[in-house]
Design goal:
Blueprint (H helix, E strand, L loop, with lengths): L1 H5 L7 H25 L6 H14 L5 H22 L3 H5 L8 H29 L5 H12 L4 H23 L6 E2 L12 E2 L2 H10 L1 H24 L5 H43 L5 H7 L8 H22 L3 H25 L4 H15 L4 H31 L3 H30 L13 H11 L4 H16 L4 H9 L2 H24 L5 H40 L1
Antiparallel strand pairs: 1-2
Length: about 575
Amino acid sequence: MDSFLASLRGQLTLRGCVIGLIGCIVITASSVYTALKLGALPWPIVFAAIISLFFLRALGSRSLNEANVTHTIMSSGAMVAGGLAFTIPGAWMLGLADEISIPEILVVTLGGVALGLVCTGLLRRYFIEEARLEFPMGIAAAETLKAGSAGGKVGKKLFGTMGLAGLYTALKNFVPGIPAIFLGNVSIPGVAFGIYNSPMMLAVGFLVGTGAVVAWFAGAVFANFGIVVGGTAAGLWTTEAAGGIVSSLGMGLMMGCGFTVIAKNILPAGVRALRRALAERRGSAAGAAGADAAPALASAPRGVAGLAALLVAAAALALCLALGVHPLVSVAVVALTFITTAMSAQSVGQTGIDPMEIFGLIVLLLVAAFSATAQAALFLIAAFVAVACGLAGDVMNDFKAGHVLDTSPAAQMTGQAIGAVVGSFVAVAVVVLLLGAYGPDAFGVGKEFVAAQASVVATMVSGVPSVEAFVIGIVAGMVLQWAGLPAMMIGLGVYLPFYMSFTAFLGAMAKVAFDAMQKRRQAGLSPEQRGQRQADAQETGLVVASGVLGGESIVGVVLAMLAVLAA
């Protein structure tokens, strides 16, 4: 125990916890809003790293490990928020809001957090040290901290853009005459054409990456102008039928991508890693094979292993009591969640993408196929799995950053647990807050909160509009992903309203223009000067885009709170 406590000293500090928890509350709340509003949730890990280092430096700390643990606390609630936002609102779309209580949502969320922490603790060494996966967001966070990018001018840029974006968001809400969609008066039957009046959406396009957004936009063009406009003009189907085809095809593409990632990359390595880790826990592994798979918890005090077992049992019991399902169903969900968290870690490590709602859907469909489980309980099961998988992706990114910076895994895991538990309460509170402020009819494609992933879950529970298009989408998604093409992003473009995809595309084009302008400015400089200018430009773009994203999403949550108070 002494060695365990020693590993926390200087890394998990009181000031770091205070800074991390304040940031965790803000980021978790804004992540719920972002996920529901945009149907996407960019990783907040780099943003959290910048904020953590900025405030710790202001308090006189120069420790990168302390900043790393602080940002671990700060970002840990975001993917918990994603797990809820990508699943639970689907129940509201089916009129089941009264059948899911706040305590049930909270119990399921905390259960998912507990299982996600245990699974990642078991598998940390394999995925981080042995498999040597890229974990691009974790590497980005480590490099951000190493560069010390949260100093004076950077802090002004960050908070300045956050303030401007927040002010503009408030003006949109209170000043009449500012349209929600520019060019929205352009009428194309079946196509939601226009430019979304959302700086946050532009920032998403800027941050995600040009190649990924181009694939996203290509899917949108194909769906809206190929299937809807072209197919309707050719007399193949009506505009209404085209909408069902497009939504079914988009869901199929995303699910096909998920299946292929599982079959090709995740399942073989994930299952082997899980078996080796559990064998090591039983003391049956030996020699080099045992060393390769040694889990992070192996070197922890024996009481930690007992706590892990207790958390697993508590998660299973929580499912059983909160959902009213058969104990065997609860045990099966817990077992499947162990597997899906390994899949999630593998996916994030290889692609930087965590399709947490796809994993929730897989478990949901398996449960529905073999048991008579109520629809409301199915949504809670999907949320349980999605929260665990979302947290697993975040934990592994943080562990990768810690591995680069030589941060104590024990300090990071402790910080992650603190932030995830607090984030659970915040995420549930904001989800309930938005439901109370806007009502269940505000959630769904084309409504106030697009909630694209939750809409997919709802559709799968209630029935697919076009089974043929859905099957074609699954096959196409599997083929595209197997060929190395971004099927998930293409499917997202097919599924989302065109104006959202178009706006994200404009954000990506702004990134192309920004890079071209910086390249012209660097012409004639020495290699050393060019490298420094390029690093400064990348930092500026990241900070400004992150500030825009954070400013609008935070003010969005504040506006929702005001709406509740005024009701």
